[in-house]
Specification:
Blueprint (H helix, E strand, L loop, with lengths): L1 H20 L18 H10 L6 H5 L4 H16 L7 H4 L6 H14 L6 H8 L9 H18 L6
Protein name: DMD protein
Pfam family, one: CH
Length: about 160
């Protein structure tokens, strides 16, 4: 039951993020790992609710993911009182830690407007399943499928 609750919470949180960042064409959040690594999603989420805090175009054009992440975490600390729970270096990786991202986005959810439409939730439910898997699970699934194909190619071994 706890797993189901977590899944529903993540679905609502992802729906909220996607709904909030919809007008930012550079941002497409499909998970709580790789979608956050370049720093654009955090900044878009903040800007969508508090556009007076910074110039989106200036931040979006910054070349470094680390700069964008640092900017978002500083804005959230200074204007929303959210502690810097993440280091930019830990997020700007091939696969950031899902639980850390979830914890930080939940902190944002608690202080920013929280309206989530049913349409946004349905949209998340329609995302391809693999886009919601952490990278490690996706790779593991790929290896399992590849191994199954290899084994079935040699029926005498079975």
């Amino acid at each position: 039951m706890a797993g189901l609750q977590q899944t529903n919470s993540e679905k609502i949180l992802l729906s909220w993020v996607r709904q909030s960042t919809r007008k930012y064409p550079q941002v497409n959040v499909v998970n709580f790992t790789t979608s956050w690594a370049d720093g654009l999603a955090f900044n878009a989420l903040l800007h969508s609710h508090r556009p007076e805090l910074f110039d989106w175009d200036a931040v979006a054009s910054q070349h470094s993911s680390l700069q964008r992440l640092d900017h978002a975490f500083n804005i959230a600390k200074l204007h929303l009182g959210i502690e810097k729970l993440l280091d930019p270096e830990d997020v700007a990786t091939a696969c950031p830690d899902k639980k850390s991202i979830l914890m930080y986005v939940t902190s944002l959810f608690q202080v920013l407007p929280q309206q989530v439409s049913l349409e946004a939730i349905r949209e998340v439910e329609m995302l391809p399943r693999h886009s919601r898997l952490p990278r490690e699970e996706h790779i593991q699934l790929h290896h399992q499928q590849h191994f199954a194909q290899e084994v079935s190619a040699f029926p005498s071994l079975l």
